[in-house]
Specification:
Chain A: Keywords: Amino-acid transport, Cell membrane, Membrane, Transmembrane, Transmembrane helix, Transport. Chain A: This is Branched-chain amino acid ABC transporter permease. Chain A: Belongs to the binding-protein-dependent transport system permease family. LivHM subfamily. Chain A: Its main location: membrane. The complex is a heterodimer of chains A (about 290) and B (about 325). Chain A contains eleven helices and two strands; from the N terminus they run ααααββααααααα. Chain A is mostly helical and about 290 residues long. Chain A has a two-stranded antiparallel ribbon. In chain A, helix 2 packs antiparallel against helix 3. The longest helix of chain A is centred in the N-terminal third of the chain and has 32 residues. The radius of gyration of chain A is 19 Å and the shape is globular. With about 325 residues, chain B is mainly alpha-helical. Helices cover about 70% and strands about 5% of the residues of chain B. The N terminus of chain B is likely disordered. Classes of the chains: A mainly alpha (about 290), B mainly alpha (about 325). The interface between A and B is large, with 44 and 42 residues.
């Protein structure tokens, strides 16, 4: 592997890891704050990707599609929390597993009824479709750099939101003692609803962002979901910072695994998880 | 455990009687469906040992089911029927060994981690069979000849024969049920129940909790292997999809729908699930939509699963006076 190829793989690993972080951070936030295990989280990623496909076809512009998609997925998240999830906070994890498993089936079939089971591509917008020439034969697409940049900006925004805003303070307080926060006169139900909608929107946004690169296909959400579980297990449940570190580690393991042992590339991520489990069964980081 | 014992013995015997004479009167189609249900019931009961009796919610139980099915393929000779004496123990052993190795890792975690880690390990095993040429890769592989049971030159049983197969499945179902009932009354069973209700207390009483959990995990894996072996024999075809996470989700669904911690409940859950699947898939190709909706409704409206339905009805009829 020469230096240019290595650099390209490194950029790919970074981009994949950052994208995973967007999805996994929502999953870990929803668990860390509300104690909900959400198997349907991958479905929101899938929804986002299909929204990008359908809305880009309708409006002709990916950016417009993404703006509409963000509004739509936030609304979906808000309604789901209001209608279903808010009734499950006091229930066992098993009920949550069951409900969200049922939701996966429902969402997947709705997707099949509306869009069908074909694989679709989404065009990269003209202004981002160029490639940067790295050597005579190798180049790197601008859109992937754009994806990484957007993810980094969002990660910084999330850090700022959780650490340095009043809302973030309420979120952190709510995760450690719901009743106490409530008795201080803060509307904790609304905060939960917002966090859930935020998590859904992050996952859907990741799907929209990834659609032009990965194309949209049935089952894409479940694939991401399981990798996100690995991210959360490695990073520590409830830890956003841990999710970032773990997602980047997995990006590296997956990308370089494909280069080094192509036949068993699917396994490297899980081997990494097994190693972390031996070392620290509760994940590398523990809390928000 | 207590409600399993409370179930009237008469109901169990009646079920057994119906099952043992069914092929004489029922059509082939329903016999085959019933065979599938009984296999799933074994699978669901094996998971119930973990979920319902030990408090370990495994979302990766299909891995052991699938490994046993693949073991059947790998052990069977290509052009001859294999011997049941060899294949069944080999399949169960393969599942048990896999459960032992996976258990060493996953049992280090608890609660929500356990759910996610078991899912991830099962997915890892899925990729082993999906990516490698070991069992035909993503296309799967056929079993050309079903196993048979011979003593000397005489063939006693041929699993390729639907009638023979039905009774082998029924026998193994009863054996699994009896085995689990005995296990649950044994010191090991009581220790597992203790771990479920308070793990810290068991630890401070000096119980080697990890070893007990590992024993439970291996036994559950081995019994899932029995179901996987039977499933491979019934369909004669093994693909990576049988150890996919959908399979793990479905069996967990059977256990929860039927009501956890009652072996009968797991069997009822398997029955309800397979029948619903049959009915819905006859109605529409989007049958998973109906299945998903039913699941969501059950969780929202019927906490405690289908098994709680009878208690609720009883309470309703008796005017709310009894405590179930």
């Amino acid at each position: 592997m020469d230096l240019t190829t290595f650099l390209i793989q490194l950029l790919n690993a970074l981009q994949y890891g950052l994208l995973l972080f967007l999805v996994a951070s929502g999953l870990t936030l929803i668990f860390g704050i509300m104690g909900i295990i959400n198997l349907a989280h991958g479905s929101f990623y899938m929804m986002g990707a299909y929204m990008a496909f359908a809305l880009t076809s309708a409006t002709g512009n990916l950016f417009v599609a993404i703006l509409l998609g963000i509004a739509l997925s936030a609304l979906i998240g808000f309604l789901l929390e209001w209608g279903l999830f808010s009734r499950l906070y006091k229930r066992d994890h098993l009920d949550q597993v069951l409900l969200t498993y049922g939701l996966i089936l429902v969402f997947e079939e709705i997707r099949s009824m509306i869009v069908g089971d074909d694989v679709h591509g989404v065009r990269i917008p003209e202004m981002l479709s160029a490639s940067i020439q790295l050597s005579e034969t190798l180049s790197y697409p601008v859109y992937r750099l754009f994806m990484s940049a957007v993810c980094i900006v969002l990660a910084v925004l999330m850090y700022w939101l959780i650490r340095h805003t009043r809302l973030g303070m309420m979120i952190r307080a709510g995760s450690s003692n719901r009743e106490m926060v409530q008795s201080l006169g803060i509307n904790i139900d609304l905060i939960y609803r917002l966090v859930f909608a935020l998590g859904v929107t992050l996952a859907a946004f990741a799907g929209m962002l990834a659609a032009p690169v990965s194309s949209v296909y049935p089952g894409m959400g479940n694939q991401v979901l399981i990798i996100c579980f690995v991210v959360v297990v490695i990073g520590g449940v409830g830890s956003v910072w841990g999710a970032l570190v773990a997602a980047l580690l997995i990006g590296l393991a997956d990308t370089f695994g494909k280069v080094i042992i192509p036949d068993y590339a699917g396994l490297t991520v899980y081997l990494l998880m097994a190693a972390v489990l031996l070392w620290r069964p509760e994940g590398i980081f523990r809390r928000i | 455990m207590s409600s399993a014992i409370k179930t009237p013995r008469a109901a169990l015997l009646a079920t057994l009687l119906v099952l043992s004479v069914f092929p004489l009167f029922g059509s082939d189609y329903y016999s085959e469906l019933l065979t599938k249900i009984m296999i799933m019931a074994i699978f669901a009961m094996s998971l119930d040992l973990l979920v319902g009796f030990t408090g370990l919610v495994s979302f990766g139980h299909a891995a052991f089911f699938g490994i046993a099915a693949y073991a059947v393929v790998l052990v069977s000779p290509q052009y001859d029927p294999s011997s049941l004496w060899l294949v069944l123990p080999a399949a169960v052993l393969a599942a048990a060994v896999a459960a032992f190795v996976v258990g060493l890792f996953v049992l280090r975690t608890k609660g929500i981690y356990f759910i996610m880690v078991t899912l991830a390990f099962a997915q890892m095993i899925y990729f082993v069979f999906h990516d490698s040429p070991l069992g035909g890769g993503s296309d799967g592989v056929f079993i050309n000849f079903k196993p048979e049971l011979r003593i000397g030159e005489t063939q006693l049983l041929d699993l390729g024969d639907a009638g023979h197969f039905y009774y082998v499945v029924l026998l193994l179902l009863v054996a699994t049920y009896v085995f689990l009932r005995i296990l649950l009354r044994s010191p090991l069973g009581h220790a597992l129940a203790g771990i479920k209700s308070n793990e810290h207390r068991m630890l401070s009483l000096g119980f080697p909790v990890f070893l007990y959990k590992l024993a439970g995990f291996v036994i559950a894996g081995a019994l899932a292997g029995v179901a996987g072996f039977l499933s491979a024999c019934q369909f004669g075809f093994v693909t990576p999809e049988i150890l996919s996470w959908h399979q793990s989700g479905n069996v967990l669904l059977m256990v929860i729908l039927g009501g956890m911690g009652t072996l009968n409940g797991a069997a009822i859950g398997a029955f309800a699930f397979v029948v619903l699947q049959e009915v819905f898939s006859a109605l529409t190709k989007h049958w998973q939509f109906l299945m998903g909706t039913v699941i969501v409704l059950v969780v929202m409206l019927l906490p405690g699963g289908l098994a709680s339905l009878t208690q609720r009805l009883r309470r309703l009829l008796l005017g709310g006076g009894s405590n179930g």
